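FIELD: query
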Amino acid sequence: MIVDTRTLLLDRLLPWWAEAAWDPRDGGFVAELGQDGGQIRETSRLLLVQARMLYVLSHAHRLGAGPFALHAAGRLRAFLEEWFRLDDGAWARAAAPEAGGTRDGLVDFYDQSFVLHGLAWWYRASGDPRTPADAVATLAALDRRLADPAAGGYFEDDTRRLPRRQNPHMHLLEAMHAWFEATGDQLWLDRAEAVVALFRSRFLDEATGTLREFLDAGLAPADGPAGSWREPGHHMEWVWLLLHHRRLTGRGDDLGAAAERLWETAEAHGVDLSGHLVEAVDRGGRVLDPNRLLWPQTEAVKAALARTEMLGADPAPADRFLKVLLAHHMPAGGPLWINRLSPEGVPLGGTMPTRILYHLTLALAEYARLRPSFAATGPAGRTAPDRIGAPA
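FIELD: result
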């Protein structure tokens, strides 16, 4: 069977989710659907979900989706402005969009990164002239509230909770790239360079070629097991981002080398015999969590495609990871999916998080851009057990 990933994304997945996950009574996208496709009611809307969906719908419009995409993105943009925007340009973590509804005004770094990313794609889709100023205001609020002038980077939120993480910085880099590509303004690329500098100095574990996840208040590795926790899916996200940063800057051969090290360690220790990326390993490659989430598989597809596009690597890994994703997480071909599987392939949990559309959209869009279709037949797994990390 030949799968057209563009058709899967634009005709089957996104129109259905744009309607099924939108709350017609109170507005906004719900965080989860049940396996039957029904909404799971909640007391408030999460900023993260709205910001990711703003990106999803805006990118869909850029790809040539039907009128639903820009309409839904515009409706969501207005909803965000009404319920989540704070006076200083930052955005609240959650809001209850109903008469007398309350708002959780905590400012979370991870959420702000995704708002910046969503706004960049909304600007690319709509050309709304107000949006660049909104993004600059958001970045300025992030600097005022959460910047760490001593160690660098940003604190997790207004409470400065610990541990600190590389993950929100990674998505800030993604947002800076999106804004640079939208405007050509050097401001955004300079900010991206600052995040890449943190990757080099704080996040990359040179001794093992792995990516640190959790850090202490000064951005040193966190104490205890958290300091050794590694997520192969994030390795793959950084592969894609580092290679695109190299493309945007036109320099940094060391970024290609760093991306290759992350790819190699993730492939060597983070992929099981079914062909899935597992959830977590330690810095020595021992599997800590063998379960299989959907999102790391999408990031492996993206990383493999970036290596093909920019390093001339064999595209076969991209086909392999996509085949695994479709066979195991979308056996019915969408629009529903299985978010998490056990090592034995048994579905775990009964919900589908709306936020996962962010991962699916970019992976399928990149595949459609570089490899319009592929044969989704044959076994979906691996034949190299010597490259699998030892079980926990």
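FIELD: remark
Residues 382-392 have pLDDT under 50 and may be disordered.
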